Amino acid sequence: MSEIHTNVDAAEIAKFDEMAHRWWDPEGECRPLHEINPLRLDYIDERTGGLQDQKVLDVGCGGGLLSEAMARRGARVMGIDMGENALGVARLHLLESSLEVDYRQSSAEALAAEMPGQFDVVTCMEMLEHVPDPGSVLDACARLLKPGGHLCVATLNRTPKSFAMAILGAEYLMRMLPPGTHEYARFIRPSEMEAWMRQAGLSMRNLTGMHYDLINRSYRLGPGVDVNYLAHAVREA
């Protein structure tokens, strides 16, 4: 069986499909995603030179929070995910938002074989730490991009601080996320991310941290990538 079909963790898909019907509840399990979505959107918009009229692929789109936000900024968006329930929720929400997003059940690897070099921007947010081979996903993202196209990713660094804050703190103490949402061994160091990008023909252009303010219960972007971070890369021509 090819990599197109094997780089999927069925348990991870099931975990997020189980909570799919609560994806758009800003006070539910996906509250952190709702809170960071404006930061992610502005980062993508700024780093790519503007989303208006860009052809964008959202890899691991889930229930469509980021996909819809990018469509609202004027992008022509396709969202892919392997979770059938999550995609069902994403499609249903389009009836409420009246936006246009093309949702498909597909892996990045499968779509790269079908539609190479067709996107101006590819996003992959909070997804790489949930697949067996993140390097394979990054390689597929590179193949999906046009030469000079932009890739924006978000994930978690593998550090003692991230274990303490993202797992012990966020999942078990503060219950910001369901316990078991993350597996520490799958967190990705920026050096690993950059190596995979380089192998895929991508050049990393920016790396920034995403920080949670416990007192104000809000997120901000800034220096320091020891927990959550965002990265921007460009496909070499």
TrEMBL record:
Pathway: Cofactor biosynthesis; ubiquinone biosynthesis. It holds the Pfam family Methyltransf_11. Keywords: Methyltransferase, S-adenosyl-L-methionine, Transferase, Ubiquinone, Ubiquinone biosynthesis. S-adenosyl-L-methionine binds at residues 40, 60, 81, 125. It is an enzyme of class 2 (transferase). Residues 57-152 form the Methyltransferase type domain. It comes from the Bacteria. GO terms for molecular function: 2-polyprenyl-6-hydroxyphenol methylase activity; 3-demethylubiquinol 3-O-methyltransferase activity; polyprenyldihydroxybenzoate methyltransferase activity. GO terms for biological process: methylation. It catalyses: a 3-demethylubiquinol + S-adenosyl-L-methionine = a ubiquinol + S-adenosyl-L-homocysteine + H(+); a 3-(all-trans-polyprenyl)benzene-1,2-diol + S-adenosyl-L-methionine = a 2-methoxy-6-(all-trans-polyprenyl)phenol + S-adenosyl-L-homocysteine + H(+). Its EC number is 2.1.1.222, 2.1.1.64. O-methyltransferase that catalyzes the 2 O-methylation steps in the ubiquinone biosynthetic pathway. Belongs to the methyltransferase superfamily. UbiG/COQ3 family. This is Ubiquinone biosynthesis O-methyltransferase. It comes from Ectothiorhodospira haloalkaliphila.
